[in-house]
Amino acid sequence: MAQHQFQTEVSRLLHLIIHSLYSNREIFLRELISNASDALDKLKYLTVAEEAYKSIVFEPRIDISFDKEAKTITVADNGIGMNEADLIDSLGTIARSGTRAFLEKLAEDAKKDSNLIGQFGVGFYSAFMAAERIEVISRKAAEEAAWKWSSDGKERYDIEAASRETQGTTVILRLTDEGVQYANRWSIEDIVKRYSNHVAFPIYLTYDEKEYDDSGKEKGSATKTDRINAGTALWRRPKSELTDEDYREFYRGLASPLSRDTEESLFHVHTKAEGSLEYITLFYVPRKAPFDMYHMDYKAGVKLYVKRVFITDDDKELMPIWLRFVRGIIDSEDLPLNVSREILQQNKILLNIRNASVKKLLSEFKALADNAASGGEEAKEKWETFIREYNRPLKEGLYQDFANRESIQELVRFKSSTQEGWTSLSDYVDRMKGDQKYIYYVTGGNEQTLRASPLLEAYRARDIEVLIMDDEIDELVIPSLGRYRDKELKAVNRAGADEELGKAEDKAAEQEIRPVIEKIKKALGDRVKDVKLSRRLQDSPSCIVADENDPSIQMAQMLKALGQAEMPEIKPILEVNGEHPIVASLKETGDEGRIADVAGVLLDQALLVEGAKLKDPGDFVRRLNRLLAVPPRA
Ligand code: ADP
After folding, report:
1. Are 288 and 259 spatial neighbours (Cβ–Cβ below 8 Å)?
2. 36 within ligand 1 shell (Cβ under 6 A)
């Protein structure tokens, strides 16, 4: 017998599961059944696709039995099985990104949410919630040797030679005192119906039933075996036959662990295509975005089947990246069974299915928006939930998915300086004043900073709506959008965005303020690219704008954070409000110290309201204090 140490991560995970996540204990059975079903899927595939396995008679089944006295539950399958190396790899290490992400998440808000395990589906190890010792006897298809893996789920596991009649895996749980509650017919049936009813393979339960003679006296017991799951591939059944509860149940059972985060989806789309391409798709949009949506190694949400045969649940190409939150299945009639991953990726048929699926989803999203616009509270709530969770990936779609840009740009939503809640670009344009040329927006910083930005003053005064873009991704998205319904999008913090504001046309006033501008410019030297008389300020004395083609301050910060340290420093353009008393006060003075102080404060305060960090806060404070110390004029 060989003894092995668990990989440290496994030990940690086991410890956490066993000690802190008891609330959803029964799901261990779902996890074991789903592993058995995957193992059957894998073998089914091989028996169709590969010569070496074609002689195997494929009679798939999952068998559950229990023994209350001996305190055991056993789950057996005749699927692909595992050899010694597989046992070490699969049950002794954590290979899956989902599990690792689960660990990270758990470390974050440790134990707060005891439902976590249900959300992430940590698989096999969850069985240690009910068992103090687990034995796995397995024999890999097309191999002779069988192996027994056993462990108490603490630090080590043992592997020794064993025997098993056919290929497949038998998992024997030696139950804890708590776990014994599941060792009965009714609990097992109940759990299987709840979680695993649509598993495509038959699940059997073996149990003893007492028998009585005519006088009602017990005369012994008989062993019976019943099939306990429905086992139909739900997506193959006509929509008209399916109830909401059927769809909900299927969603709960979707084997991707990440889709289990909520019991309910926001909505589903079930499509059957006939004609040149035959396929069925059933997609769900989760009510809550998958926890790993922003992880580089997010888990794919869509599974591929070919003629009911499971092909993969790990192909991110099945959906565009921006739709990575969609869960569900694609089942194709036309693909060959033995497609390799490489072939899948450039397969025409699959590409067509994918394109059609994206279109279908987009039209479904649009229907959701339309319903919200015309419908009741429920429709509104649905749409708002959708936008709250998925506005951001939709925006990614704007720059990733050129072919669908037109549809996506109708879906994304923004905040606005004049509207409550979310607004669409289309509604913005409908509200535009007759002579307004551009769609205005402000980016960078949080919503509050943006709403308070002096840059908006003149727009507000002239009742021009500005979109408040407080989402980091907006900086990337909007330039790539460029125009909407023939209107150019203009950032209000750009040098050219003030042409419609029309102020400062007064030549005489401009002439008068010119020397002040020159004084400020001289005082600030190379801290600024230029100093200009502003047309967009109303109450504030100054603001910062970026030159047409320079990145904005926020963009520059983002690029820097991304490691582009080599980027040349971008200097701002300072705009000053000629009518503001602070600026006007410079007209008469020749005091260079005071001019330098005022100029410095005008620049630094403009940076501060934009949420930028000052390079030399001490300098700002010293100048400010000097100015404050001047006694008021009598
Ligand atoms: P997951 O199933 O999500 O990958 P698990 O921890 O449940 O994670 O299982 C780890 C691995 O162990 C599986 O990916 C699979 O390779 C292997 N495995 C588990 N149960 C079985 C089984 N019944 N038959 C064959 N392989 C199995």
Report:
1. no
2. yes
- How far is Cα 393 from Cα 413, in angstroms, rounded to an integer? 12
Q: What tens digit of pLDDT does each residue of 526-552 get? A: 899 999 888 878 888 998 887 777 766
- Rounded to two decimals, what is the model's pTM? 0.66
Return the bridge partners of 459, or none: none
User: CATH number, domain at 73?
Assistant: 3.30.565.10
Would you call 169 helix, strand, or coil by DSSP? strand
As a whole number of angstroms, the distance between CA 319 and CA 454 comes to 43
Please tell me the distance from the alpha carbon of residue 616 to that of residue 22, in angstroms, as a whole number.
54
Give the span between the Cα atoms of 178 and 73, in whole angstroms. Answer: 13
Helix (H, G, I), strand (E, B) or coil at 584: helix
Under 8 Å CB-to-CB from 144, ≥6 apart: which residues? none
Same-domain pairing of 189 and 243 = no
For residue 125, report the distance from its CA to the centre of ligand 1, in Å: 10
Q: 449-500, pLDDT tens digit by residue?
A: 889 888 888 888 888 999 999 988 888 888 778 889 999 998 887 766 666 6
Ligand 1, pocket-test mutation among 7, 35, 62, most atoms within 8 A of CB = 35
Please choose, from the candidates 456, 570, 577, 454, the residue with its C-alpha nearest in 3D space to the C-alpha of residue 520: 577
The closest residue, in CA terms, to atom 8 on ligand 1 is 123
Residue 401 inside a domain? The answer is no
In a domain, 393, yes or no: no
Range of the domain at 287: 234-361
Q: What are phi and psi of 423, to 5 degrees?
A: -135, 155
